Amino acid sequence: MTAPHVVVAVVIAAASLACASQSPHRGYEYMPDMARSVPYDTFAPNPVTRNGITQQMPVAGTIPRGFLPLHYSGTAADAERAGRELFNPNAHTPTTIGQGRRLYETFCLVCHGVSGDGDGPLVPMIPNPPAYSSERVRSMPAGHLFHVITYGSGRMPSYASQIPANDRWLIVGYVDTLRTRRPEAQR
Ligand code: HEC
Prior knowledge:
- By secondary structure, this protein is mainly α.
- The protein folds into two domains: 1-57, no CATH class; 76-186, Cytochrome Bc1 Complex, Chain D, domain 2 (Orthogonal Bundle), CATH 1.10.760.10.
- It contains eight helices and no strands.
- The chain has helices spanning 4-18, 32-35, 76-85, 94-107, 109-112, 135-138, 142-151, 165-180.
- Helix 4 (94-107) crosses helix 8 (165-180).
- Mean pLDDT is 88; it is low at 182-187.
- The chain binds heme C (HEC).
- Residues 107-108, 110-112, 122, 126-127, 129-130, 136-137, 145, 148-149, 153-156, 159, 171, 175 line the site of heme C.
- Heme C is lined by residues 107-108, 110-112, 122, 126-127, 129-130, 136-137, 145, 148-149, 153-156, 159, 171, 175.
């Protein structure tokens, strides 16, 4: 049986040979597949595909799972069309209202205020948003509200990149409760 110190010496000798810094040759590669990727790298040229690149566009007409395409632009006319065509997929229940409220408090409250009166803490620094109890916002169909959050409106920016579509609908549900339970006199 080999003495343990001989084994240690052989391992150290092998390791130092593998890393000789001045040698023009590569060290011995143990399991090269681990270091060198067998598949083509995402941005590498590719001799197999027709256009010579590895990362391909999705096939025309396909959509990612769970993604609902919206065929609107950010114009006022499309905001009104969204009001006619889009409907909140969530029922008004204590759960959905509670979820919408948390999202509203995260994304909208800073400007629109706790009760949607347009008096959030940021207001001296940004233009005064309209109260949700105003005639214009109260008469917006839910789909129009969804369009405002998705594409922005006037000086209000789009929130589509921060808030996924169903979360936007949950916010619409909560804004519904803010704008309808308030009598006009409280503006
Ligand atoms: C950075 C501040 C800011 C945030 C955050 C913000 N808004 Fe606004 N919002 C505004 C301003 C300013 C206006 C007025 C825009 C105008 O008329 O030019 C506005 C307008 C609106 C309107 C009326 C749009 C119209 O066409 O009359 C609605 C509805 C609205 N916001 C909902 C929301 C909701 C819901 C959220 C959260 C997802 C939100 N806003 C987040 C600043 C903000």
